[in-house]
User: Which sequence fits this backbone?
């Protein structure tokens, strides 16, 4: 580089296209918002440096010295199963509802006014955080698994309707046309063409949602009285102030979530191969 | 085992749904979910909502205070997503097969990211409460860690997808490591990165509400306060404000995505 005798005329490597300009403006906007955000933090007199040191020390306790005190190992497993059950139940319910509604939300399967109606409704459902759905239903059903299941099912259905409808819309238009031309009824088209071609996509979206619902179920245990391991974690943190017990619970959810992620990655790779 | 592949497939599907049904039944038992009450609660909740869960005049007077909390929460979601993505990009560059400085970097980079994203944001909040108490830091770092883990995962994939050919080409010209990264890999990945940052901002606003309930900060705390004091009309205004904010940010993200990608 230093061997250059005279400066070369600067060549614009990246021309200022609309896309590049948008990228730069977005980055600038995000940076400014971030810097501004730091000035508005409500620090409550907590010194960042000491708190960060304290955090590292806490991580050491949490991860290297976990142990159970207020509950037994069997209790921990049961709580984990409750949380997994909550995630599974809401995923299954959400998937069943979403499958039928997504058929009417897909542009190639239903009239456009119906698409827009369902897509608008689901956008609203998804915009409300799951915890608020759960607390909303808790007023009518009381705090507990009923409110948690309905609230989480609502949000899952909203998410899966969008995902399923997009999968349905990717189906080759020729296949649908051929079936229609041969006189197949609407339901025959759905079960002979739509479901078989999109099955792997539906399966992988549903599994993604199960992963989300497992973590949501932890959160609902901590905030909305859904029980399970989230509630135990909340008690260990806010009530017993027991970091080491919180560590044991953290390991339990970490191992399960990692196993789910591993399974999802391998399933995706297998589905991808069988498609080729 | 029948040799007919269609028959085999049918049996597989039936077995799959049978197992799923059994697991679902097991879940109903273990979570003590009352199916009948579940179905009847939905119409009850919505009929209650039409009379009680509507902002009244007193609630609208609280709007400025609620909006202030909302902006605080949005800013926290944006700053945590942005800073975590910047750090996440660096770690992803160290971990990706095409750009890692040495093969030994991959496993630690991916492993650390995996731990950070697989501990749920609510669990992070409960852990961080010990060090940061009821300050904005708790929520900020909870969102930061989860975003960081997620961004490393998706950016490792993106870098390996878009980077391979251009990295080889530049390496052949004798460009050094930093030049390759800054002139080829990062520009090629930026549109994807921005798209993921926007996605994480959307996600973080929803998570921030949850974290706020746990840590007593931001818009989540406002909701919790009104909800627990049974001031449902004010609580409904908080929900409304969140919905509007999320929808606006989603629309804005889509505009930016279309311009960038």
Assistant:
């Amino acid at each position: 580089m230093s061997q250059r005798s005279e400066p070369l005329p600067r060549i614009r490597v990246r021309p200022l296209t609309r896309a590049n300009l948008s990228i730069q403006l977005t980055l600038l906007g995000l940076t400014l918002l971030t810097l501004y955000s730091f000035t508005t933090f409500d620090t409550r007199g907590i010194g960042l440096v000491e708190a960060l040191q304290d955090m590292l020390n806490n991580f050491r306790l949490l991860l290297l010295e976990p142990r159970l005190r207020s509950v037994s190992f069997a209790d921990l497993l049961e709580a984990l199963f409750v949380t997994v059950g909550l995630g599974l139940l809401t995923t299954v319910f959400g998937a069943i509802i979403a499958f039928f509604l997504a058929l009417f939300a897909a542009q190639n399967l239903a009239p456009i006014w119906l698409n827009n109606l369902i897509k608008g409704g689901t956008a609203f459902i998804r915009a409300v955080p799951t915890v608020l759905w759960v607390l909303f239903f808790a007023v009518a059903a009381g705090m507990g698994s009923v409110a948690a299941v309905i609230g989480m099912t609502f949000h899952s259905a909203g998410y899966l309707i969008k995902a399923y409808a997009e999968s349905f819309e990717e189906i080759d238009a020729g296949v649908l046309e051929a079936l229609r031309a041969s006189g197949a009824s609407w339901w025959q088209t759905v079960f002979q063409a739509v479901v078989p071609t999109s099955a792997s996509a539906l399966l992988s979206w549903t599994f993604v949602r199960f992963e989300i619902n497992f973590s949501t179920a932890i959160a609902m245990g901590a905030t909305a009285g859904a029980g399970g391991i989230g509630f135990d974690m909340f008690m260990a943190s806010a009530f017993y102030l027991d970091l080491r017990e919180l560590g044991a619970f953290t390991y339990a959810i970490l191992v399960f979530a990692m196993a789910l992620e591993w399974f999802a990655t391998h399933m995706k790779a297998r589905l991808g191969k069988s498609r080729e | 085992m029948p040799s007919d592949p269609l028959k085999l497939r049918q049996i597989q599907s039936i077995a799959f749904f049978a197992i799923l049904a059994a697991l679902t039944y097991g879940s109903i038992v273990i979570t003590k979910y009352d199916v009948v009450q579940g179905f009847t609660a939905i119409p009850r909740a919505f009929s209650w909502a039409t009379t009680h869960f509507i902002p009244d005049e007193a609630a609208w007077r609280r709007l400025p205070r609620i909006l202030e909390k909302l902006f605080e929460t949005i800013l926290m979601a944006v700053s945590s997503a942005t800073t975590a993505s910047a750090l996440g990009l660096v770690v992803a560059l160290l971990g990706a097969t095409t750009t890692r400085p040495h093969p030994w970097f991959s496993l630690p980079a991916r492993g650390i990211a995996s731990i950070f994203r697989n501990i749920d944001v609510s669990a992070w909040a409960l852990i961080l409460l010990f060090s940061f108490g009821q300050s904005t830091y708790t929520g900020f770092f909870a969102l930061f860690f989860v975003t960081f883990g997620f961004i490393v995962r998706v950016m490792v994939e993106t870098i390996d997808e878009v980077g391979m050919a251009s990295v080889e080409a530049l390496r052949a010209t004798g460009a050094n490591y930093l030049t390759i990264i800054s002139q080829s890999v990062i520009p090629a990945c930026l549109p994807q990165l921005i798209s993921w940052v926007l996605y994480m901002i959307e996600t973080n606003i929803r998570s921030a509400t949850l974290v706020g309930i746990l840590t007593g900060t931001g818009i989540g705390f406002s909701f919790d306060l009104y909800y627990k004091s049974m001031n449902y009309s004010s609580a409904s205004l908080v929900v409304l404000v969140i919905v509007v904010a999320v929808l606006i940010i989603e629309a804005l993200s889509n505009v930016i995505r279309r311009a960038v990608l």
